[in-house]
UniProtKB/TrEMBL annotation:
Keywords: CBS domain. The lineage of its organism: Bacteria, Bacillati, Actinomycetota, Actinomycetes, Pseudonocardiales. This is CBS domain-containing protein. PANTHER family: CBS DOMAIN-CONTAINING PROTEIN, CBS DOMAIN-CONTAINING PROTEIN CBSX3, MITOCHONDRIAL. Coiled coil: none annotated. CDD domains: CBS_pair_bac (cd17788). InterPro entries: CBS_dom (IPR000644), CBS_dom_sf (IPR046342), Diverse_CBS-Domain (IPR051257).
Length: 168
């Protein structure tokens, strides 16, 4: 039983859900993939973010969707919104074409945060706390060796909590 459970006078349920129980398979990208592929993977699969893996399938970083967008939009336009306003619509749409030669590694932050990861045996509370702490709607689930085994989206976590612990 967990310390929190003992302190609250509760017993842990034998059927308590763990990260592995709600993890799903998601497509990943690598630092060598084009940014355009990363955005497409996220869009086509309706993911709230992306998991970037290294050559051993270990999470290199977990990027919320807003961070993926930040990678795609040139820094000059992010820093000066007036610059984006002066472009006509046709020119403004060309920034996407300019991304075709840039990789995830080219535009990834130099000071990247520790990836949002949990072990497969983590509790749903641990997953929720990590998502809240790191402001990430996506968490990578890893095995004992740190290899990706799945992912949990915010939507999946909230749905699982509501169904599992919901009382009418």
């Amino acid at each position: 039983m967990s310390t929190a459970g003992r302190l609250a006078g509760r017993t842990e349920r034998a059927d308590a859900m763990q990260a592995r129980d709600i993890a799903i398979n998601v497509p990943t990208v690598t630092v060598d993939d084009p940014i355009t592929k990363a955005v497409r993977v996220m869009a086509v699969n309706r993911l709230p973010g992306l998991i970037v893996v290294d050559d051993r399938a270990r999470p290199w970083t977990v990027l919320p969707g807003t961070q993926v967008l930040r990678l795609a939009v040139p820094q000059s336009y992010q820093e000066d919104p007036a610059l984006a306003r002066v472009l006509d619509e046709g020119s403004a749409d060309l920034f996407w074409v300019e991304l075709s030669d840039r990789t995830v590694g080219d535009v990834a932050p130099h000071q990247r945060a520790k990836p949002a990861t949990v072990r497969a045996d983590a509790t749903l509370l641990e997953v929720a706390a990590l998502m809240a702490r790191q402001h990430s709607p996506l968490v990578a689930v890893v095995d004992e060796a740190g290899v990706l085994v799945g992912a949990i989206t915010l939507d999946r976590l909230i749905t699982s909590l509501a169904v599992y612990t919901g009382e009418d």
